[in-house]
Amino acid sequence: MNTTMKMIALGLTASALGACAGPTQTESNFGESVRQMISAQTYDPSTLTAPSAEPVDSTDGQLLEGVLEEYRGAVASPESVSNEIVIGLGGGQR
User: Fold this and answer.
1) Does residue 67 register a pLDDT over 80?
2) pTM for the complete prediction?
C-alpha cells in the first residue's frame, strides 16, 4: 500500500510539473503570421517603431487610384460570392 501511495504522489507531481512546462512551438509562434503580414503591408517600415504624430497632408494620387480601381474591380464584385455554398458531412444526400 505504501508503494501505491508513492506512485500516486509521483504521478501527481509529474502532472503538476508538466502543466508548468514552457510554451509549445505553436504557442511560441502565436501571432507571428499577423506581425509578418503587417510588416509586409507597411509602406515605410520605420513608422512601425517610430510613428509620426503629424497628420497626413498628401499622398500619391496614382497609388490611391490604383488601390481604388483594384477594390472596385476585384474586391467589390458581389456576383462572385452569390453562389450557393454546399457543405457535405457524412456522405449523405441533401
Assistant:
1) yes
2) 0.33
